[in-house]
Amino acid sequence: MGGRKSGNESITSNKDAETPARQFGVIGGQGSGKRGASAGQSLGGPEEDCGDFEMRIARDGTWYYRGSPIGRKPLVKLFSTVLRRDEAGDFWLVTPVERGRIVVDDAPFVAVAMAAAGSGPGRTLTFTTNLDENVTAGPDHPIRVAIDPDTGEPSPYVLVRAGLEALIARPVFYDLVELAEERETTAGERELGVWSGGTFFTLGRTES
Q1: Among 7-16, 85-94, 164-173, 185-194, whose mean pLDDT is lowest?
Q2: Which pLDDT tens digit goes with each residue over 153-179?
Q3: Into which CATH architecture does domain 109-206 fall?
Q4: How far apart (Å, rounded) are the C-alpha atoms in residues 136 and 168?
Q5: Predicted model pTM
Q6: CA-CA distance, 106 to 78, in Å (whole number)?
Q7: What's the CA dihedral at 31, 36, 42, 45 to 10 degrees?
Q8: Contact in structure between 97 and 30 (CB atoms under 8 Å)
Q9: Which element (helix H / strand E) includes 63?
Q10: Which of 39, 100, 158, 165 could make an S-S bridge to 50, C-beta 3.0–4.6 Å?
Q11: CATH superfamily of 7-104
């Protein structure tokens, strides 16, 4: 994440990047001193709502704090462990001491690689996210494809954990389509999809 920039657009320094982590109670040193909430927990957390944390996750998976990219991947991974999404679709960082909203442009993660094993209903598709998290598509981690109503462009996703998806990067989606097979639905329509974890995931309809 990141790279070098010049002038006033320099990537957030290590020290500056740790400031919000300490402020929000993700890193010890303030608040209760406890570790951040474990991944997969419901929103819950403390009653104190701190509003907007001035953080944003761009569509390419880059995390920003006050407009500057956070250049330390281990720190971004730490923030991601306390990321939650509520029933209204809002994204939050929930720590032992406080919680606050963050902005997510699309999905909080990006699937940057895929490994396929087996074939047919016995195939497994394991995705690796930009934060090095592995998830195997199946009933608990479904694949879905959203179609832009204006452009018709597909946006594929895989569920990483409760309410949190990874946008499947375009090159990975092309690899996924290469594995797709066509089948007829009970309604007599033709669809293109892939198997993983014993589940067939539809990628799109085909012309009859």
Answers
A1: 7-16
A2: 999 999 999 999 999 999 999 999 999
A3: Roll (2.30)
A4: 13
A5: 0.79
A6: 20
A7: 0
A8: yes
A9: strand 63-65
A10: 100
A11: duf1285 like domain (3.10.540.10)
